[in-house]
Amino acid sequence: MNQTKFDTRARRWIPLTALAAALLLAGCGDKKEDKPASQTAVKVNKDEITVHQINFVLQQQRGLKPEQTDAASRQILERLIDQEVALQRAEEQKIDRDPRVVQAVEAARREIVARAYLEKVGENAPRPTPDEIRKYYEEKPALFSERRVYSIQEIAIEAKPEQQAELRDALAAAKNIDEFIGYLRAKEFRFTGNQAVRAAEQLPLSSLESFAKMKDGQAALVPAPTGVQVIVLAGSRSQPVTEEQARPAIEQFILNERKRKLVEDDIKALRAAAKIEYVGKFAEAAASAPAGTAPAGSTAAAVPGAPAASAGVAPAAAATPAAPAASTGLSSADISKGMGLK
């Protein structure tokens, strides 16, 4: 081989050998530094609890501040250890094969998988545009620009359907709520009192307009499952919200509604395409149900919204003028429901 050919080949291979040497040297370094951090948090007998398990539980902790993460992780790990030792003993005793346990595990699996599918369906909901948010703000003055904070008194009265007219007349004739309560005691009606302070966004949208039209001291009587409920607007104060302040809540509310509608429509389409055959007593219930509806008790999962905070309970007290009972459009459950704006 002549010298020219040798030099040419050498020039070709030198870069490759240099690269190989560099890789080899990198591999010969301190292997402890290059080894990825272990994902095992603790070993419990033959099994391990991993960092991934801890992080999964951490993700479920809403409102957790960054500085609380370490302490929360340690608490979660201890709970997982308790769970693991119990699980291992349960498997030794073959409790995991108990038919009731198997059924519960399968029910949980169905719920988790179905909910994951519905959440995936809801992901296709488009976010509202700035114009849509502004339009919603302008169409709901009682919720935003004319927002009020309401002091509400509730009186739940046990009564028969035929006694509702009598109670309505007594409420209209009473000069104040104390006089009406005196009437209830004289007639030996059983009742309970409750009072709460709720902002407009803590009231159901379906009833907010009716509340906004009520004046301080006005009372309304509405049917309830066990009788009637008297709702007294003891007082209110104006506390408006600007569009800028309301924008995040409005955006989330509209988005949640769109997700709910997508999920609802998808379930309807799936039910329409499926072959559903009720059997036995369930066939009788299905036959008697109105067309296009599922039998009583049948529900479809939905993308959940945040529940409203519950108000404290205290006896009804302060004497406030009671105006004639107004038609407010409220239901007995409306007072304790929120709009889910968050």
Describe how the helices and strands are arranged.
Blueprint: H1 3-27, H2 31-34, E1 40-44, E2 47-50, H3 51-59, H4 69-92, H5 99-122, H6 130-139, E3 148-158, H7 164-173, H8 177-186, E4 191-199, H9 205-213, E5 219-224, E6 227-238, H10 243-273, H11 281-288
Antiparallel strand pairs: 1-2, 3-4, 3-6, 5-6
Helix pairs in contact: 3-4, 5-10, 6-10
What would your notes on this structure say?
The structure is a single chain. This protein has 342 residues and is α+β, with helices and mostly antiparallel strands. 48% of the residues lie in helices and 14% in strands. The protein has helices spanning 3-27, 31-34, 51-59, 69-92, 99-122, 130-139, 164-173, 177-186, 205-213, 243-273, 281-288; strands at residues 40-44, 47-50, 148-158, 191-199, 219-224, 227-238. The strands form 2 sheets. A 4-stranded antiparallel sheet has the order 4-3-6-5, with helices on one face. Strands 1-2 form a two-stranded antiparallel ribbon. The N and C termini lie far apart (81 Å). Residues 1-33 and 296-342 have low confidence and may be disordered.
